[in-house]
Design a protein that fits this description.
Strands 1, 2, 3, 4, 5, 6, 7, 8 and 9 form a nine-stranded mixed sheet that branches. It is built from one helix and nine strands, in the order βββββββαββ. The longest helix has 11 residues. By secondary structure, it is mainly beta.
C-alpha cells in the first residue's frame, strides 16, 4: 500500500437518508478509490475501500445549539436517521469547536480494503475528518442542508488479524495508515 500514502482519490457521497444507514451493516462498493496524479503517479491504482458500517457519533446534543465556545462537542439527532438499529436517530457526526473560532468534524466507519486485481480483502476501521474556519454552530445547518466542498483527511487501520492471503496488501500484517486527500462534491456528508 506504500504507493497510496498521500495519493489523491475520490470519496463517494454518503447520503444518510438513502442507502447508507447509520449503525447497521450495508455494502457501499468503491467508497474510496484512488487516482493517478502528476505528483504521485500510480499507473494503475489497484486498491479500493468498500464501506460496510457507519458508527453513530459519540457526543451529546447539549451544546449543538448553544453559543460557540472552544471545547464544545456535538452529535446531532435527525429523525430521518431513526431505524431499528438507531432508535433515537443519532447522526454519525462528531463536531468539536477548537481554539480561534474553528471547528472539526469526524465520522468513524469500517469496511474492507480490496485489491482490485485479485479480490483479496482486509477489514479496516477508518476516521474521516475535516476542519472549518468557523464554529460548528454556524456551519451545522449549511453542511446538513447543502453539503460541503472541503478537503478531507482519512486514516484507516487494518485488522490485527488479516484474512488469509492479505500479506501482499499488508507487508507486516499490522497497522496500515493511509492518509488520502479526497474530494467530495456538493452532497450531504
Amino acid at each position: 500500500m506504500a504507493p497510496y500514502v498521500f495519493q489523491g482519490g475520490y470519496l463517494k457521497s454518503l447520503n444518510f437518508v438513502g442507502p447508507t444507514p447509520v449503525n447497521q451493516s450495508f455494502v457501499l462498493p468503491d467508497f474510496i478509490t484512488f487516482a493517478s496524479t502528476v505528483f504521485n503517479p500510480v499507473v494503475v491504482p489497484d486498491a479500493a475501500l468498500d464501506l460496510t458500517f457507519i458508527y453513530k457519533g459519540v457526543h451529546g446534543q447539549g451544546t449543538c445549539g448553544a453559543g460557540p465556545l472552544p471545547g464544545q462537542t456535538c452529535t446531532p439527532l435527525y429523525a430521518a436517521l431513526q431505524t431499528a438499529s438507531n432508535l433515537t436517530g443519532i447522526s454519525p457526526y462528531n463536531f468539536e469547536n477548537l481554539a480561534g473560532n474553528t471547528s472539526s468534524l469526524s465520522i468513524t466507519v469500517r469496511g474492507n480494503l480490496r485489491r482490485i486485481s485479485t479480490g483479496e480483502t482486509t477489514p479496516f476501521i477508518g476516521i474521516l475528518s475535516t476542519s472549518f474556519t468557523s464554529p460548528f454552530q454556524t456551519i451545522l445547518a449549511d453542511i446538513l442542508g447543502k453539503g460541503s466542498d472541503n478537503s478531507y483527511a482519512a486514516t484507516f487501520a487494518a485488522s490485527d488479524v488479516p484474512e488469509p492471503g492479505t500479506g501482499i496488501l499488508l507487508a507486516a500484517g499490522g497497522l496500515l495508515v493511509l492518509a488520502a486527500r479526497v474530494r467530495k462534491s456538493k452532497a450531504a456528508l
